[in-house]
Amino acid sequence: MNPSPAVHMPYKLSQATTALLENEWSADNHDIEWRTKFPPLLLSSHLAHGVVALHYLGADEEKIHGFVHDYSKRLHKPVPSGQTLQTDREVNTLIGKRDAYPSLLRYYKKQIEEHGVLSCVDRFYPRLAQGVGGVAFHGLIHLGYGLAADCTQVIAEGLAYLHHSYLPIGEIKQPQTEEEFPTGSAKLLQALTEMDTTKLDNVLQAHMGDFGFTAASVFGIGMMALSQHATKEIVRIVQQLDLRALAENPNELLDVALTVFALFDRPNDFFVLHLVTSCWALLQILPCISAEVDKLLAVHGFVAAMIAAIVVQHGEILDASVLPDWTETPASFWEDIKQKAINLKGDEHVWKVVQVALSHRENVPDGERVSDQVIKLVVQRATGMPLVGRAARLKQFLWLKCWKLIVVLLVILPVVLGVIVNSFL
Fold this sequence. Notes:
It is a single chain. The protein is mostly helical and 425 residues long. It is built from 20 helices and two strands. It has a two-stranded antiparallel ribbon. Strand 1 (33-35) and strand 2 (42-44) form a beta hairpin. The chain is globular.
């Protein structure tokens, strides 16, 4: 395959581990999604991400294989799909339909085999860039981890999953040239901190109850509501931002994602964490895109979904003055935190956010990235407390879904009780 430029990963997986991801551990053998028993939710497979993150942190083969053995127990065998996709038109009919994933995977594997990784990412990612917020950014995350590990199978899985889960948020008609691309001058972090979310909050209040009891999380339902009813408002916010500066220096995007995670008023928020890992994934993808206008579109698509995610999680980004005033951190801290993360059991999300934060620190010079103070807070929070916020809007959601039933019960229940009491008198 063509070598992919790994922006932040300093080394590749071993040949043996890559071979397992290409075959036994692949989405050809384990479906890209799995269903929980209660509540019945569809969740994305993190198997490949966990392997790459553990490898970066320095875990041995025994730890990696132990993770795969335990994690794969929850995964399902893929449901065969007999559909063969021959043309772009056939493929495009499936975008965002959440259907025929095995067929999409075969299509993208064939495209990579015929045209190479770089050509395929350059060709296909701009078409998918405005839908990265579907399934909590996992299509984007999967593609980024595949590129970082130079694993053709995982790259194809990521492209197919992006296609499968495409959710347009803040979608615009793609400009033909860089000069036509609408951008402003505002800085991203300041805009996220100061933006007026009243209109977007009203959309969630009005429409989160529209989707029935689905296999999507509350977060996913919120993202769908904003996708369908808030395009103009999200585009308005995004087009105030200096997207060109972000496209020219995408490390600033990751600085912002790490800062938001560190300063979010609900520490260790589960879905804000996904902004960190998905932003890092985007940084693996951008060097593969040749046209500047396509890079701008990629940044636009991610930032629009980022804004939506922060609004759905309904939290405040605190001022940087709340950061602890640490003295100089000993060099041993950074290696020790890797080992602490490796030794944690159960949640591969922690490995991933620590891997992203530390690789950013190690690969971007001091002074050209977010401070060690922010990175230290990110990794200490990630390794020291449970992830929260998976049901940040659960009470609101249940009220929106059930208020009519509650009213009916309040009216009928006294009548029923009265009948029962009278029958015994």
